[in-house]
Amino acid sequence: RSYELIFIIPIIRSFLNCKVIYDIHEAYPEMVLQSSKIPTFMKPHLSKLVYLSEKLVSQFTHHLITADNNIAKKFDRLNKKVTTIYNYPVLTMYKPQKRKFERLKKQYLNKTPIIYVGSIGVDRGFLLMLNALPIIKKKIQNIILLVIGEVPKELLNIAKEIIIKNSLAKNIEFLGWIPHENISNYIAISKLGLVPFLPTEKYSLNIPIKQFEYMACGVPVLGANLKPIETFLNYSGGGKIFNSPSINSLSTETINILSDPLKWELMSELGKKTVHDKWNWSKMEFRLYKVYENL
Fold first, then answer.
1. At 28, phi and psi to the nearest 5?
2. CA distance 177 to 206
3. Which of 150, 113, 151, 149 is nearest to 133 (CA)?
4. How far is CA 111 from the centre of its chain?
5. Of residues 216, 219, 252, 255, the one with CA closest to residue 93
6. What is the Cα–Cα distance from 272 to 285, expressed in whole angstroms?
7. What does pLDDT average to in each consecutive run of 10 residues of the chain (295 residues)?
8. What are the b/e assignments for 60-84, b being 16+ CB within 10 Å?
9. Which of 170, 222, 272, 281 gives 20 to 30 Å between its CA and that of 115?
10. How far is CA 149 from the centre of its chain?
11. Could you give the C-alpha distances from 283 to 65, 66, 192, 230, in angstroms and in order?
């Protein structure tokens, strides 16, 4: 699953008597274009290099597995053995643990929690969420944003400035890394799950798994107007879309969802039902077994 390992695929294929599968979960060329660690002038050249090397090396594999159809389309002309296996959640991992859930409910009893779970960066809407909070707070004074994931040091310093400037100390909690089995408890006590990605090439291709995790816990989703998010939220009715990267749009839609209990309840039920009926790992694992069986 790591791009760096693809260069040993021809060696494995040539010298070892085994089947080789390349599991492609990310749009790697697009990842290069938005990386903050690569000098700007090098990005287009490295992105092209990654694109060409993936195309070349993929021909040495016995099968390709992708996490969405957008990635699959890049390879199906060169390698016909491509299977899309969506990285849907395992439902048993998104059942809140009763004692921990009740403890968290008491902890946030007089708050209106909204949540973000996952890797954190400017491109993932971190500063967008923080800058929307003061606007949301004017309408919902007890709002609190729970952020699960490690915040890079440089972003944490910027966040502290925004928090101090807007008196948000009681409206945001950076929870850091939390064991995966405990995350569902935090999601389940939240009133809204955020997917506030910025409109980059990568996020216009890859499907964010967090939207399914929120819905699995019965939490409505507010997501950016990107096709891999919009398609699923429109189909399920499990949330709403905002115009990324507009701070006003994010804050307005957050307020609208939290201010309408009936619509909130409907989105909660529709999202949870769709994930439990269609978008979960039990619907995908047979595809993976079939790939192994046919090698």
1. -65, -40
2. 23
3. 113
4. 25
5. 216
6. 20
7. 72 85 84 82 86 84 89 75 93 94 96 97 97 98 98 96 97 96 96 97 92 98 97 98 98 98 98 97 94 91
8. bbebbbbbbebbbebbeeebebbeb
9. 281
10. 12
11. 16, 16, 26, 21
Dihedral Cα 28, 31, 35, 40, nearest 10 deg: 90
* Pairwise CA distance, residues 265 & 167, whole Å: 31
Pairing mode, strands 82-84 and 172-176: unpaired
C-alpha distance from residue 131 to each of 70, 115, 124, 239 (Å): 32, 15, 14, 21
Q: What CA–CA distance (Å, rounded) separates 120 from 152? A: 7
User: For the segment 83-99, what is each residue's pLDDT rounded down to a tens digit?
Assistant: 999 999 999 999 999 99
